[in-house]
Amino acid sequence: MTSVRPTPADPTPGLVAAREAGDQRALPPELGPDSMAVLSGPTFMYADRCGDVPPGSIGGLVHLDTRLVSEWVLSINGSRLLALRAGTLEHYAAEYVLTVPEACGLPADSLGIRRQRYVADGFHERVSLVSFRPEQVRFELRLAVNADFADLFEVKSGVRDRSAQITRDHCPDGAGLCFSYAADGFSAETRVRSSVPADRVEGDQLVWEIELSSRQEWEVDLHVPLPPGMGVVEPIRGDIADVFHRRVEDPLRRWAEERAVLRSDHQGLERTVRQSRDDLAALRLDLEVKGQRILLPGAGLPWFLTVFGRDTLITAYQTLVGGPMLAHGALLALARLQGRRCDDFTDEEPGKILHEVRSGELTRTGVKPYTPYYGTADATQLWLILLSEYWRWTHDEETVQFLRDNAIAALHWIDNYGDRDGDGYVEYATRSPEGLGNQCWRDSPDGVCFADGRIPVLPIATSDLQGYTYDAKLRLAELADGPLADPGLARRLRADAAALYQRFNRDFWIEERGGYYAVGLDGDKTPIDSITSNMGHLLWSGIVPRERADTVVRQLMAEDMFSGWGIRTLSRAERRYNAIGYHLGTVWPHDNSIAVLGLTRYGYRTEANRISLALLEAAEHFDYRLPEALTGFQRERIIFPVPYPTACSPQAWATGTPLALVRSMVGIEPVDGKLVVDPDIPAELGRITADRIRAFGKLWEIEAVDTSGHVRLASG
């Protein structure tokens, strides 16, 4: 009997009857495209345009991967409210202006309702009402609340019914609700406190009987405290009115304002970079890793407010131009959690850098392997690349020397565990029944496929992994010649890189269709022949010979790849192309930023600027915040960019993208202890200046226009 071979869609055949399919749920219609979230570190409240969380939706109050509130619906006389307008004040605060429908038993628009909320060390909401009727009115205000304590993994797929283990201990005086859950050693609690006791409590609903005369106002404050622990970075504190009118100190704003400041003749660029700075502040996580407090970016709202390997490392690389703090935190945090042993369930191996850390019930009770989970084949190389880039920007030899053993362990993983069969390539295949099938950045089950649509067999060696490995070895050789003081290691690494360069350009190059690089080699060493955006990553790594660069750039910028908003993940010529497919034709800003840096490296500034301008124009359609991914629809057919349905926003490496684009356009590079610039600024952007750029322990100022620019040390 022929055995079933593993593929990314079924990586462990026979081990489990059914596997989760990754990104299972699209945005449900009950939240809709106007849904909005407020967040602070690993905490967020996700609601519809009225501020409600309907039961059964993906919305709710989530803290450290546990949903503490799964229903939060405000109604008057049994009718849902109507939204007039809603918006965020800051990433942590939002306001909703509402009114009543005629169906509620009152005349339409006869009440004005305002909901103001923010998250910090808890969730705070103020509900304010005012009557516009000339006569006195009576009505019932009702807040329906529930807490299902779902793990975030379940929110994405299907929530297990925990009602039998949830106890309700509501305050008899109407001052609050309490939900408690305990099972299998995991426990959680949600308390809702009301500044105005409800007139009655019906089940899990607070009910107020309100009587208002003309122009009379009424308000109630609601508070859901968070459990104690790490996670929130210097939360804002104060009365809701003081928060909204900025009468209290905002530590995050102070942090953002201490970063580098960019100015441009082009308002869109300036506002997009400012939004990136603010979003990076919002996504910061304050963690304790083996006794040390560390600051680093979480990956994205709502699904990935946690530590990631690949996402965190690429974000830190993108944002080094704005300062080294996030890179320093990422290097230390990931080093402290570096793999020490072989563990099939978590895919851990000695020297390997983690993929993802989670804190919810499924992880803490051993159902899921995220303690951390190590199922990624690229984070280890990216950690070495970031270590090198951090040193190039800081000359912080002390940190590099402190991380020497981690760097050597990472190299050992690449050569002994990453290269599973000794052929000189890094491959991946999970050993865990809960493991990821694809362990490159294209990590959906069909993210790597043949041109004819077939899913390859495992293990797979994708092209980006080889490019990263090549770059990592050359960069580690540079460190070995410098702060690590090991010239023998440097010679060996350069020889390894040269051999990989030759082997890769022999085995991955396909002459057909004008010439291009395969996205990978499958378990039979057959080239996986689809045309993908991975070629941009190869330019970034430097593994492409100069004589092939023209061909690669022509492929990336061809109409089947370039949508007008950016480079697609997969060519429109391939069988599985889908403009709304996660890795099958969408446009990812971070993916494009890597391509832009690669194009700049090879001197293709015109093409790099074309992509940069397209992304900046796309950002303007999203209030100057790039989402995680855009659909791949052709710009000529649809006049505005369309987000991928479940795109995270803000999302760390999309947030870091504008800084990478600026680095490309201005040509900022650290060289021998100083900054240099080689500008090629598109005429549309005019002059670009930047202050407070941190490099080598000093502050720098940059000014550039067209192809001219200069750098100087900041005065004082």
Main sheet, how many strands, which sense, barrel? 8 strands, antiparallel
Helix content: 25-40%
Distance N terminus to C terminus?
Answer: 77 Å
Q: Count of DSSP helices?
A: 18
Strand content: 15-25%
The residue-averaged pLDDT reads 92
Radius of gyration from CA coordinates = 26 Å
Structural class: alpha+beta
Q: How many beta-strand segments?
A: 30
The strand order across the widest sheet is 7-8-9-10-17-14-13-12
Shape: globular
Low-confidence stretches: 17-29
Characterization of the model:
- The chain has 716 residues and is of the alpha+beta class.
- Helices cover 28% and strands 23% of the residues.
- It has 18 helices and 30 strands.
- An 8-stranded antiparallel β-sheet has the order 7-8-9-10-17-14-13-12. Strands 6-5-11-16-15 form a 5-stranded antiparallel β-sheet, with no helix packed on it. Strands 1-2-3-4 form a 4-stranded antiparallel β-sheet, with no helix packed on it.
- α8 runs antiparallel to α10 (404-418) and α15 (589-601) runs antiparallel to α16.
